[in-house]
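Mods, move this if it's the wrong board.
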Amino acid sequence: MAITVTPAAAERVRNFLEKRGKGVGLRLGVRSSGCSGQAYVIEYADRVEPEDKVYEDQGVKIIVDPKSLIYLEGTQLDYTREGLNEGFKFNNPNVKDTCGCGESFNV
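Not the wrong board. Structure tokens:
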């Protein structure tokens, strides 16, 4: 399985990297947090570590550390706008439950 991005997410990442003026891609991860156990971490990556797994989709590199990969395998990253809210959305097939606030999940 791979980690993929929608065209909307890819465009947003490319635009941010271009405005930022540096970076090799987007780093996705998870950390312990919230009432359900795990929360997503998303940041721009300036380098790829030797142990990282790199996926490329829609012309965008997605970089994931090995510990996070077990939670993110098969995930599709999207970028959505709903009313005044906009942001990245994780379509993760591994999620069994999420908290009411939408900040955390468990697998």
